[in-house]
Amino acid sequence: MSIQIIPTATAAENALAEAFREAKANLPGTASVAEQRAQAFEAFARAGLPNRRIEAWHYTDLRNLMRRALPLAPLPSQAQIAKLAAEAAELPSPRLVLVDGVFAPDLSGPLPAGVKVTSLAAALAEGEPALIEGLAAAWAEADDAMVSLNAALMQDGLVIDVAPGTVLEAPLHIVYATVASEPAARFSRSLVRVGAGATFRLNEMSLGQGGRTGQTNNVLIFDIGDNANVAHSLSLTGTEPNSLRLETFLVKVGARAKFDSFALITGAGLVRRQIYKLFNGADAKASLRGVSLLRGREHADTTLFVRHSAPGCEGRQNFRYILDDEATGVFQGKIVVDRIAQKTDGRMLAKALVLSDEATMNSRPELEIFADDVACGHGATIGGLSEDQLFYLQSRGLPAHEAEALLLEAFAAELVDEIGDEDLIAAYRADVAAWLAGRADA
Amino acid sequence: MLEVKNLSVSIGDREILKDLNLTVADGEVAAIMGPNGSGKSTLSYVIAGKRDYEVTSGEVLLDGENVLDLSADERAAKGLFLAFQYPVEIPGVTTMTFLKATLNAIRRQRGEPELSIPDFMKRVNAAAAKLDIKSDLLKRAVNVGFSGGEKKRMDIFQMAFLEPRFAILDETDSGLDIDALRIVADGVNALRTKTRSFLVITHYQRLLEYIVPDKVHVMAGGRIVRSGSKELALELEKNGYRDYVEAEVA
Fold first, then answer.
1. Angle CA(A290)–CA(A295)–CA(A299) in degrees, nearest 5?
2. What is the pLDDT confidence band of residue A219, given thresholds at 50, 70 and 90?
3. Nearest residue on chain B to A391, alpha-carbon basis
4. Can you give the pTM of this predicted structure?
5. Which has the closest alpha carbon to A17: A1, A40, A50, A34?
6. Cα–Cα distance measured from residue A182 to residue A214, given in angstroms and rounded to the nearest whole number
C-alpha cells in the first residue's frame, strides 16, 4: 500500500491560485508566454510557499509568515498617473518611473543616447525569443518558488538595453511609485542588458508611499557584457509593518567586467532579497554590499548565491546589520567555485550589531570549492557596540547616547561611502541618519 | 587643583588602588612612575570615568567637586582629558567629524554655543600645527591604520584641540620614536599654563627629560609610596623599582 501525502494548501496559496486563474487571460504576452506562465505557476504550486524545510528559506518561513495573499494591483488609471506628474518632476533624471509596477513613460525621461527602454508588457507581447529567454533567466540556482510565481504573474517592468560602449555620466534612476488605494500585490520583472564596454550606474528608489504597503515581488535581471562597468544601488526604506517585499536579483557578469551593487534596507515589514550572481567570463570583478537597519518586529533576509564559473574573478560580499527591539536579521551566503574557476578570489563578510536582547541575527556563510588554486574566505560577527570605543568617545565629551549614535552611523556609513557617487552617498547617508534619529526619539 | 583622597578601587575581588592619596596643584606637572601592575593605568581610568571599576572608598576632587559622581563625558566637559595608553580605532568616523562632535558636545554641556565653521577650522589648524599633523590625516577615520606612534600623536593633538583643564597622559611615550617623542613633548610643553595641570604616567624616565615635571610620585602596590622633586626620577632610573616592590611584598 502506498500513501500519497498531499500537503494542504494554505489560505495564501489558495488565494494565489485564484488570483492566477482570474488574471491569466489579461496578463501581457503572446500565446507562448501564456504557456510559460502556466508552467511557472505549476512549478510554484508544486513547491508551495517556501518554508523552513527549504534550506534557502530556512530562516524566513514564508508559508508561516505570509498569512494571506493580496489581490493583484489594478492597472493605474491615466488620471492617477497624471496626479504624480508634479512630484515626479522633482525627481532626479534620467529616470524610469513604474506606477504600481507599470511603466509610465509620461513620468519618465529624458533617455540618454545609447539607452533603449521598452516596457516588459510590450516586450512580452512581441515575444522575441532572445528577449523571452533573457527574461526567463532560468539558471539552476534560481529555481525558486517565488521566482516562478513572479514569472507566472509578472504584470510589467522594464527592458533596458544599453548599447555597447555607451558611457553615461549621470545615474539612471528607476522609481517605484504606488497609487492603489487598497493594499495590493505587485509583480514586476525587469531586464537590463548591458553591451560590451558600456559604463553606467542604475539607482532604484521609491516615490512617496512607494512599496510601503502591500506585497511586492520584483525580479531584476542584469546581463552584463564583457568589459562593461556597472554600478547599482537600491533603497528599500520605510515599508509598513505588515508589508511583504521580495526582491530577486539575477546578475551575470561578463569577462573583465566590473559590477558593484549596494542596498540599504531601513524599515521592513518582511523583506527578502535573494541575489544570484554568476561569473561567466574570466577576470571580472563584482562586489555586493548591503546595510539593513531594523527595529520593531521587522524581518530582513539577504540570501546570496555566488557562482564562479570562469577563472580569475574577484568577488566581494560585505553585509552589515543593526538590529534593535525584536527585529530579525538573516544573512545567508553561498559561494560556489567551479573546477574551471582557478585563481578565484572570493570574500564574504557579514557583521551584525545586536542592540537588544530580543533581537535575532541568523548568519550562515558557506563555501563550496571545486577548484584547487583559489583564495576564498568568509567571516561573520555578531555582537554589540565596543565598550572601548564607547568609553573613548565619552572620555572626549560625547554623552553615551551620542557616542552610541556616532558608532552606529559609522558602522553603516562605512559601506555607504563605498557607493562611489557623491549625491547617492549623501542621499543614503541621510536615510541612515533618519533611521538613527527615529531610534533616538523612541 | 586635583585631589585624590583615600581612594580604594577594586575589580571583582581584587583591590587595585589602596587608600591612595595624591594632590596636583594648578599649573603643576606631576609624574607618576612605578612598576608594571602597580595600578597606574587604573588610576588614570578611574579619574577619567571608566565604569569597569568599583570605587569602594574615597573621592576625586577637581577644584573641590567630586567627579566620581559624574559620567565620563561630564568629566570631559569639566575639563578632564585622558590621553590613552592604547588610543582606540573608530572606523567610519573621520577625525574631523570626531573633533567637531566632541567639541560641540562639550560646549553644549557647558551651555556655550557651537563654534562656527571658520572658528572650528582655526582651532583645528592651530592644534595640528603644534603636533605636526598633516591635514590628510584628519580626513581619515580616527586612528584606523595608524602606527602606534601616530595614534599617540593624534591623542595629544586632540588634547591640544580640546584645551582641557587637567590632562592625564597614560604611558604616552611608549611606542614613540625619538623624533615623535620630541614633537609630543613640545606639544605638551606648549600647553603648560599657570592653571592647566598634567598627570604624566610613565614607566621610564626618558619622557621626563622632555616634559620636565614639578613633582615625581612613585606608585607601587596601589599606593603612592614616595613623592619628591624631578631628581627622584633619575634615582629611579638608576636603582629601578626593586626597593619599592620588595617593600610592598614585605
1. 65
2. very high
3. B50
4. 0.91
5. A40
6. 8
What's the rounded Cα separation, in Å, for the pair A122 and A183? 26
Q: Which of A318, A322, A395 to mutate to test the interface with B (most CBs of B within 10 A)?
A: A395
* Closest among B15, B38, B1 to B226, alpha carbons compared: B38
* Residue A319: pLDDT over 80: yes
Three-state SS for A255? coil
B148 burial level (CB within 10 Å; 0-12, 13-18, 19+): middle
Nine-digit cell string for A115: 539607452
A132 touches chain B (CB under 8 A): no
Say if residue A82's pLDDT is above 80: yes
Contact A392, B87 (CB under 8 A): yes
**Mean local confidence (pLDDT), A157-168:** 96
> Looking at the predicted structure, is the pLDDT value of residue B250 above 50?
no
Provide ipTM, 2 decimals.
0.96
How confident is the model over B161-178, as pLDDT tens digits?
999 999 999 999 888 888
Query: Residues A370-406, buried b or exposed e (16+ Cβ, 10 A)?
Result: ebeebebebebebeebeeebbbbbbbbbbbeebbbbb
For a pLDDT cut of 90, what percent of chain B falls above it?
78
Write the CB contacts of B211 (distance below 8 Å, at least 6 apart in sequence): B29, B185, B188, B189, B198, B200
CB contact under 8 A, B101 and A395: no
Using the structure block, give the residue that is written with the C-alpha cell 558602522: A411
B73 with A399: Cβ contact below 8 A: yes
> What is the 3 state secondary structure string of A286-321?
EEEEEEEEECCCCEEEEEEEEEECCCCCEEEEEEEE
- Using a CB–CB cutoff of 8 Å, tell me whether A342 touches chain B: no
pLDDT tens-digit map of B7-25: 999 999 999 999 999 999 9
Burial A301-329 (b: 16+ CB within 10 A, else e): bbbbbbbbbbbbbbbbbbbbbbbbebbbb
Cβ neighbours for A394, distance < 8 A, ≥ 6 positions apart: A400, A403, B49, B71, B72, B73, B76
For chain A, percent of residues with pLDDT exceeding 90? 83
- Asked if A428 is an interface residue toward chain B (Cβ–Cβ < 8 A), one would say no
Side-chain half-sphere CA neighbours of A71 within 13 A? 8
Q: How far is CA B19 from the centre of its chain?
A: 21
- Residue A144 is classified by DSSP as -
Residue A9 grid coordinates:
494548501
The pLDDT value given to residue A210? 45
pLDDT digits 0-9 by tens, A8-39: 889 999 999 999 999 999 999 999 999 999 99
Per the prediction, chain A carries an average pLDDT of 92
Give pLDDT, residue A206.
85
Question: Please, are residues A385 and A404 in contact by the beta-carbon 8 Å criterion?
Answer: yes
- With beta carbons under 8 A apart, name residues in chain A contacting B52: 387
Flag whether residue B168 sits within 8 Å of chain A, measured between CB atoms: no
B9 three-state secondary structure: strand
